[in-house]
Amino acid sequence: MTTTPAVRTIATAPDGIALAESDGMLYLLTACCGASATGTEHGVACRGCYQPIDDFMGDAAMVSDATGVRRMAAYVAVPRLVGQVVSAALS
Predict the structure, then answer these.
(1) Contacts of 12 (CB under 8 A, 6+ apart)
(2) Nearest to 24, CA basis, from 6, 38, 36
(3) Residue 33 and residue 46: Cα distance in Å, rounded?
(4) CA 13 to chain CA mean position, Å
(5) DSSP state letters, the chain
(6) How far is CA 83 from the centre of its chain?
(7) Short-list 12, 14, 26, 16, CA closest to 59
(8) 44, 53 contact by CB (below 8 A)
(9) Structural domain boundaries of the chain?
(10) How many whole angstroms separate alpha carbon 14 and alpha carbon 25?
(11) How far is CA 37 from each of CA 1, 2, 5, 75, 79, rounded to the nearest angstrom?
(12) Could you report how far apart the first and last alpha carbons of the chain are, in Å?
């Protein structure tokens, strides 16, 4: 029997995108379903509803990676309209 690591939400942006941590890994959760991202043949999509999302939503960082943590936190902190792509501004 396998166990699923607990997911802890760290921050949520006004548009609903959340920064989550599970087993030492930081990643983003979608506003539409609160799900992680998955790769598709056309880019990145919500794992819950498979709607296309910003490619940056597929990024992840280890908690021990200070640069990665800042990058992920900055993405959540950037004001944007729902569905607006902001990853280019963070590159």
Answers:
(1) 18, 19, 76
(2) 6
(3) 7
(4) 11
(5) ---PPPPEEEEE-TTS-EEEEETTEEEEE-TTTS--EEEETTEEEETTT--B--GGGG-EEETT-HHHHHHHHHHHHS---TT---HHHH-
(6) 13
(7) 26
(8) yes
(9) 8-81
(10) 22
(11) 25, 22, 17, 15, 20
(12) 41
β-bridge pairing 18-22 and 8-12: antiparallel
Contact assessment for residue 26 and residue 20, using Cβ atoms and an 8 Å cutoff? yes
Residuewise pLDDT in 10s, the chain (91 residues): 666 668 888 777 777 888 888 888 889 999 999 999 999 998 999 999 999 998 888 888 888 888 888 888 887 776 655 555 454 444 4
- Identify the residue whose tokens are 């992840």: 60
